[in-house]
Specification:
With 114 residues, the protein is mainly β. It contains two helices and ten strands. The protein starts with 9 loop residues before the first helix and ends with a strand.
């Protein structure tokens, strides 16, 4: 298989990238976007952030509402069709669609991934 990216310093990764577990508290359609995405509100305990997430082909609103997700919370804000996306909900290609990353069991919203 082989990996294509160069090795990085693990301490630097943990200093630069802040990933936290959040709970999806709102899911809305986003017809204004060029790609098929949802508008999500994700509760991280002390703060709720918005995200534009490309999960519409794989998850219904009900599947995501209340789900725990792993998100990058320190990438800054990206404006997508006037919507301020403040975090990046992570996922992987599951072969037949995107699978969002989550925890093995529920943890407190805001828990840092390390």
């Amino acid at each position: 298989m082989g990996f294509s990216e160069a090795s990085i310093d693990p301490a630097r990764f943990l200093e630069d990238v802040e990933m936290r577990v959040g709970e999806v508290v709102d899911v809305a359609d986003f017809p204004e976007a060029r790609k098929d995405v949802y508008k999500l509100e994700v509760d991280f305990g002390e703060e709720t952030l918005q995200s534009a997430a490309g999960l519409t082909d794989y998850y219904d609103h009900e599947d995501l509402l209340g789900a725990q997700v792993v998100a990058v919370v320190n990438l800054g804000t990206v404006s997508i069709a006037g919507f301020e996306s403040e975090c990046l909900v992570t996922g992987v290609d599951g072969g037949d669609g995107v699978v969002h990353l989550t925890t093995e069991r529920d943890v407190e919203p805001g828990t840092r991934v390390y």
